[in-house]
Amino acid sequence: MPSKMILEARINEYAMRDQNPHVPWTPDEIADTAARCREAGASIVHFHARNPDGSPSHEFEVYAEIIRKIRARCDILVHPTLGWFANDDDPDGRIRCVTQLAADPATRPDIAPIDTGSVNLDSWDAQAGRFEHAERVYMNRTDTLERYAREFKRVGIKPQLVTWAVGFTRRAAAMIEMGLIEQPAYFLVNMTDGPCLTGHPGTPDGLDAHLRFLPAGVRCEWSSNVVGGNLLALAQMSARLGGHIAPGIGDYAYPELDCPPNEQIVRIAADIARQEGREIATPDDARALLGLPAKSNPV
Question: Would you say residue 296 lies in a domain?
Fold first, then answer.
């Protein structure tokens, strides 16, 4: 019998409101969106703290406020970002906010990401025939990744292993072999579409290429995501293959669906999963699948 399917709502990332007006920015908007996504079937919420103008925020106080407000509204598992380019010159700085949050059970994240390699995060303008961010590199040195894994283990946060290509997956497998990542490992297989050429394409072939290299003999759960494209096109395949899915408008505005709110995308993904015979995981189910503590952190 297939396991229950985890829906991880990725609700705001770096998306602005020029393409979709429903992107949540303020702590109250993020918490309300998390609660609506939970009602629609999500068991995890991934979010980026934002300033009132939508620009990224990396302030501990803002993240703490968001997490408290989310947990006051629902039982969804909390997964904040580390930030793509936050404190790139100071590897410890990128995780400082998360480790500070972990000091208080009321604000400790359940999950935090580790992108297991470095990548060019440029944007291709096909019409103009040029890259818009040709100089932009998201750097994650191996010694930095090892430090993150040890620190997350120390403070009791489950790492999500974010892989953009096969090399990322192989490095993650080595980290599991080193004992830095506890099983079951939680992989996010990132594909890319539209202007983002960084990862495997958001197609069945792109997803299959990722899955072929998941480590054999390792207990793991995997979730699919498409940056810059319609993830719902892969929801059926993900469900059939026993994986999970990370829907939301943080990575794509869904203009073909008239730019809906996050909970609508989550609801559609849940309906597709059920059609494929997969039950939808509750937060408690997700805890069990990912090897998290059985009870939520106290508020």
Answer: no
CATH number for the domain harbouring residue 230: 3.20.20.70
Q: What is each CA distance from 3 to 62, 111, 194, 246, 273, in whole angstroms?
A: 35, 20, 32, 16, 11
Q: Residue 48 is encoded by which pair of tokens?
A: 């980026």
Taking only the tens place, the pLDDT of each residue in 124-170 is: 889 899 998 898 888 889 999 999 999 999 999 999 999 999 999 99
What SS3 state is found at 91?
helix
Task: List, in sequence order, every residue forming a beta bridge with 191; answer none if it has no partner.
Answer: 200, 226
State the total domains in the chain.
Answer: 1
> Which residues have a Cβ under 8 Å from the Cβ of 292 and sit 6 or more positions away?
77, 110, 111, 158, 286
Q: Is the pTM of this model over 0.85?
A: yes
Residues 6+ apart with CB under 8 A from 221: 3, 6, 184, 185, 186, 187, 243, 244, 289, 290
Q: Answer for the pair 113, 81: CB distance below 8 angstroms, yes or no.
A: yes
What span, in angstroms and rounded, lies between the C-alpha atoms of 129 and 124? 7
